[in-house]
C-alpha cells in the first residue's frame, strides 16, 4: 500500500512517545528502588488492601456492566420504539461527563438523604461509604464500553441466522446458545476487558461515594495520590503504581488472549 511505511513509522513513533515511553520510565524508576524498597512497599497492609478493593470492585462492576450492556445493546438493535434514539444517546453520557460530576451526582442520589438512599435507609441498605458505592460508580462509567462493543456485532449479525435457526426447528434458547453467543463472545470479552481496565484506573467518580476509608474502601489510585502528597512517600507511590500497571496488563493480556482463542474457534467451527 502506498504510504504504508510512513504511516506505520509515524504510528509507532506516536505510540512510543505517548504510551510506551511514560510506562517504561515508570518501570525503570521502580526498578531502581532496590529489593528493600519493593519489600517495604509491597508488605504494607494498606497497599495490599487497596489493591484488593480495586481489583474486586472493578471485576464485579465489569461483570454487571457486561450483562446490562449486552441487554441494552440487544434492545437498541432488535427493537424499534419511541425514545430509542434518546436512549442510544444517553449511553454515551458517561463518556462526556466529567468523573467528578458523576461522583457528586451518584453520591447525592444514593446518600442517606438522596432520592434512592432515603428509600433504602429504612431497610438497612447503605450504598455510600462502602464497596457497594464503588461498584455502582464503576458500573456507571463502565456500562458504555460494554454497550458500544456489543452493539456493532449485533448490527452486523442481523436476523438472518436467527431466522434460519428458527426455520430448522431450533428454540429461542438453542438459537441464543448455538448461534448468537458464539458470534458475540469475542465482543463480550472485549467489552469486559475495557470496563475492567476503566474501573481499575477510575478515581474521580469513586472518591465521592466510597468514603475513602483506609483498609476498607480506599482504592489503589487514591492511595497513590495520598502517598505522593506525603513526605518521603514517592517510593511507595511508584511501587504501587507499577504493581497496578503490571497486574492490570497481565489481566488484559489474559482476557485478550481468551478473546482471540474464542474468535479463532468460532471461525474454525464456521
Offer a quick outline of the entry.
This protein is mostly helical and about 270 residues long. It is about 80% helix and about 0% strand. The radius of gyration is 22 Å and the shape is globular.
Features of this protein?
270 residues; mainly alpha; MetI-like fold; 13 helices; 80% helix; transmembrane helix; Sulfate transport system permease protein CysT; MetI-like_sf; transmembrane; ABC-type sulfate transporter activity
What does this structure look like?
- The chain crosses the membrane at residues 53-77, 89-110, 130-150, 187-213, 233-263.
- It comes from Lysobacter antibioticus.
- The complex is composed of two ATP-binding proteins (CysA), two transmembrane proteins (CysT and CysW) and a solute-binding protein (CysP).
- With 270 residues, the chain is mostly helical.
- It has a single domain (36-269), classed as MetI-like (MetI-like fold, Orthogonal Bundle), CATH 1.10.3720.
- Helices cover 80% and strands 0% of the residues.
- The protein is built from 13 helices and no strands.
- It has helices at 4-31, 34-42, 45-78, 84-91, 93-96, 99-110, 117-120, 131-157, 160-167, 172-201, 204-210, 220-229, 234-269.
- α1 (4-31) packs across α13 (234-269).
- It is globular.
- The model has no long low-confidence stretch (mean pLDDT 83).
CATH architecture: Orthogonal Bundle
For the sheet with most strands, the description reads: none
Tell me the fraction of residues in β-strands, as a range. Answer: under 5%
CATH topology-level name: MetI-like fold
CATH class: Mainly Alpha
Cα(first) to Cα(last) distance is 30 Å
Superfamily (CATH H level) name: MetI-like
Number of discrete helical segments: 13
Shape, please?
globular
**Tally of domains:** 1
**Structural class, from helix and strand content?**
mainly alpha
* Oligomer classification: single chain
Amino acid at each position: 500500500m502506498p504510504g504504508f511505511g510512513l504511516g506505520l513509522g509515524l504510528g509507532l513513533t506516536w505510540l512510543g512517545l505517548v504510551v510506551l515511553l511514560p510506562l517504561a520510565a515508570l518501570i525503570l524508576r521502580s526498578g531502581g528502588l532496590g529489593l528493600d524498597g519493593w519489600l517495604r512497599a509491597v508488605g504494607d497492609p494498606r497497599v495490599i488492601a487497596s489493591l484488593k478493593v480495586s481489583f474486586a470492585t472493578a471485576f464485579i462492576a465489569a461483570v454487571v456492566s457486561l450483562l446490562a450492556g449486552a441487554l441494552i445493546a440487544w434492545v437498541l438493535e432488535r427493537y424499534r420504539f419511541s425514545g430509542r434514539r434518546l436512549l442510544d444517546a444517553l449511553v454515551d453520557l458517561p463518556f462526556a461527563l466529567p468523573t467528578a460530576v458523576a461522583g457528586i451526582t451518584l453520591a447525592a442520589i444514593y446518600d442517606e438523604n438522596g432520592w434512592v438512599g432515603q428509600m433504602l435507609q429504612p431497610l438497612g441498605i447503605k450504598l455510600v461509604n462502602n464497596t457497594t458505592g464503588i461498584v455502582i460508580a464503576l458500573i456507571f462509567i463502565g456500562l458504555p464500553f460494554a454497550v458500544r462493543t456489543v452493539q456493532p456485532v449485533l448490527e452486523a449479525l442481523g436476523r438472518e441466522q436467527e431466522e434460519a435457526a428458527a426455520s430448522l426447528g431450533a428454540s429461542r434458547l438453542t438459537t441464543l446458545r448455538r448461534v448468537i453467543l458464539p458470534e458475540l463472545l469475542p465482543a463480550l470479552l472485549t467489552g469486559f476487558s475495557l470496563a475492567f481496565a476503566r474501573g481499575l484506573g477510575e478515581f474521580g467518580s469513586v472518591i465521592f461515594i466510597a468514603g475513602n476509608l483506609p483498609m476498607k474502601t480506599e482504592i489503589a489510585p487514591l492511595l497513590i495520590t495520598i502517598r505522593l502528597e506525603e513526605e518521603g512517600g514517592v517510593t511507595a507511590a511508584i511501587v504501587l503504581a507499577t504493581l497496578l500497571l503490571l497486574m492490570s496488563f497481565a489481566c488484559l493480556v489474559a482476557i485478550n488472549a481468551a478473546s482471540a482463542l474464542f474468535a479463532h474457534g468460532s471461525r474454525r467451527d464456521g
